[in-house]
Amino acid sequence: MAWLLLAGTTLSVGGAAGQDGPASTAHPELWPAAKSVGLVDPATEKKIDELLARLSIEQKVGQLIQADIGTIKPEDLRKYPLGSILAGGSSPPLGAPDRSAIGPWLASAQAFRAVSLERRPGYVPIPNIFGIDAVHGNSNIVGATIFPHNIGLGATDDPALIEKIGRITALETAAAGIDWAFGPTLAVPQDDRWGRAYEGYSEKPDISKAYAKALIDGLQGARAGGTIQQGHVAASAKHFLGDGGTTGGTDQGDTQVDEKTLIATHAQGYVAAIDAGVMTVMASFNSWNGEKMHGNKSMLTDVLKGKMGFDGFVVSDWNGHAQIPGCTRTDCARAINAGIDMVMAPDTWKGLYESTLAQAKSGAIPMARIDDAVRRILRVKFKLGLFDAPRPYDGRAGLMGAPEHRAVAREAVRKSLVLLKNEGKLLPVRGSAKVLVAGAAANDMGPQAGGWTLSWQGDGNQRSDFPNAQTIWEGIDEAMRTQGGSATLSLDGSFTAKPDVAIVVFGEAPYAEMRGDIRSLEFEPGDKQALATLRKLKAAGIPTVSVFLSGRPLWVNPEINASDAFVAAWLPGSEGGGIADVLIGDKAGKPRHDFQGRLSFSWPKTAGQFVLNPGQPGYDPLFAYGFGLDYRTPAKPLGALSEVSGVDASLSNRSVFFARGATPAPFTVALGAGVTRTAVDSPTQQEGAMRLTWSGGAPAAFAIAGPEMDWSRESNADLSLRILYRVDTTPVGPVELAIPDGAGGRGLAATAMFSRKPGEWQTATISLKCFAKVNPGLKKVASPLRITAAAPFTVSIGDARIVSDPNASECPG
């Protein structure tokens, strides 16, 4: 086991730069040349010169700051003339729920724009630019077309399709009044444990390079020729640079590779993006050989803006400037001096504006640097047409999830499917057959769409949140009825009449950055619910097709063994019918569509093959890069695969502390003297909860114990601790809720929280930022949950885990 983990780590590490100077200092002469197209022209530069001459230093500094819609109101722009607003992954439009249709989003964008264009004394009207993570369609808005995530699109190897996807994303983004899509992601993931692996098109740079131009042409118009008046939006190539190469696959970690590898593997997509005229580039959270990219002047200025000829503006990532040594969230001249033009300070914009203004006045940030950044931002705003009043696409609600848009998304689903196994030519399923559809994900848009869908992590979504969509079950049911057969939905695989074939849909729960990082590639380690369903069907003699939903290749050997056919369906998005198009044949069983997808990521043979990329020493996958079966070519029998994972299953869990009556490894329950534990029923399961009873007399604690964890990133990212609990006996004294560090740490006063609604099951969602105030930084978390009381008190706990739901969070005490 140890050697597998070691191999997965050391393969991702490179040496020093091989040049004079630190390994984190770039040498521009080694880098490929590129040149922005369509951004600089004499007429536009003259307009910028005239504007710069009229702007006060306050307005110039304002252009450099971007705030999140959840922490700012339009009227704030009258005092703080910020240049940009963003809506983070779980940030709601003004006065409306996070999961809103086009109306509230359009009204919000227009409200900020209106204030930014007001004519008032001492202020020069400059339009705000509004950005959003439209990373697989305009996926923050209810009713939008949701395309497959990038890992699925990489399997299609179809740049023309990618350009169509970019064009549709632009139309549905512009219709909501939004000017700027934070994409394409050009990461080249090297370690599949990384929680953003699905945002990469491929583990090799070739596809990313081809797709960069295609998506940017779709979003911005070919060669940056489109404007918001034509339904185009600004693109943002991200994240510059090396985010897919961090050691251990750790999000926001350190990419320890030499300069040659950084160029050859991680930079190639940016050459194509800049040549295509991409308007913005987003800096990456990661470090390169120990130096944070947000503060690396040799990369941002000397390479990106110098040798690579980028003429647009560089935007930072969510409070990424605060990770630079010597900086804080509200004070970071170094980021701007390094080459950041617009600082994303979602919840710290006011303090950052004030400190940056003082630094501009003192000369700590030279006026030449300020003017260069403002020029770049104004250049994009002019080129995008933001200074031009008419916006004919604003409010065109009919574009959201339009039938022709969904047809393209369905095409993308069909082309992204990769057939890994088809024993006995089970697929395609005869359209006149009787089909059982099973699996937890069969009728659930959450795992089907994945992260960055309506919420940051993609969790908390309901079927009703997707009015213009079709689940995989709904697609199969429609196809079977059309072909004369029948389909029955049974999530647990039970049946009364024996079916001809079963299709089982299962996969990863939704996730995004940080929460998506894993330490083993084993699927469902220690709790193999999908496998149990497959084996039950196999024991009943039912031919079984597995449809696997995932954001990366995972070790699923037991599940493949229990399946007659196995399909990697990735994260297909809103069009579940695209899967039925390929799996379900006509009445006679002839294919209606064939499999076209080919692996753009290698598939592991063990759960410890974290770094598994062509050309690396010891490359030995189960299914190699480029693999994919189809109906035209007979498949060789796969045979029985090893079911020894090679990795300790407990390594994978870092966010679930109590569930279904148990404390999953590597966590355990620790009880102080005076606290007892009894198994009781939860709302959904017999003995699925634990009752904790304090007898009183002296302070005593219940705690979840586990390995020490650094939660500093999680506390910055609006994550929360969610507890399902029932007050059985109201406390008669103080109760403290804590996430202690190694030294003990203080807690939050939680007496009121544990006194409300006695006898009823309820949920508390407590922001980690609350705990960070009393346990600064949460850098050494010794226990993810501790409850302390001195007086008699009884509470039952049904579930405890980390979630992302900032709009429902509270802060006890």
Percent of sequence in beta strands:
15-25%
Structural class based on helices, strands and sheet pairing: alpha/beta
Query: Helix coverage percent of residues?
Result: 25-40%
Sheet with most strands: 6 strands, mixed
Oligomer: single chain
Report on this model:
The protein is α/β, with parallel strands linked by helices and 813 residues long. The protein contains 21 helices and 28 strands. The protein has a six-stranded mixed sheet, with helices on both faces. Strands 18, 20, 21, 23, 26 and 28 form a six-stranded antiparallel sheet that branches. It has a five-stranded parallel sheet with strand order 4-3-2-1-11. β15, α17 (529-539) and β16 (544-549) form a beta-alpha-beta unit. Mean pLDDT is 93; it is low at 1-19.
Short summary of the structure?
The chain has about 800 residues and is of the alpha/beta class.
Layout of secondary structure:
Layout: H1 2-10, H2 42-54, H3 57-63, E1 65-68, E2 84-87, H4 102-116, E3 129-132, H5 150-156, H6 159-174, E4 180-181, H7 205-220, E5 236-240, E6 254-255, H8 259-266, H9 268-275, E7 280-283, E8 287-288, E9 291-292, H10 297-307, E10 313-315, H11 333-338, E11 343-344, H12 349-362, H13 367-383, H14 403-416, E12 418-422, E13 434-438, H15 445-449, H16 472-483, E14 486-489, E15 501-507, H17 529-539, E16 544-549, H18 557-561, E17 565-568, H19 577-583, E18 656-658, E19 668-671, E20 675-680, E21 689-694, E22 700-705, H20 712-716, E23 720-729, E24 735-738, E25 748-749, E26 761-767, H21 768-774, E27 785-789, E28 793-803
Parallel strand pairs: 1-2, 1-11, 2-3, 3-4, 5-7, 6-8, 7-10, 13-14, 13-15, 15-16, 16-17
Antiparallel strand pairs: 8-9, 12-17, 18-28, 19-22, 20-21, 21-28, 22-27, 23-26, 23-28, 24-25, 24-27
Helix pairs in contact: 2-13, 3-12, 5-14, 6-7, 6-14, 7-9, 14-19, 16-19
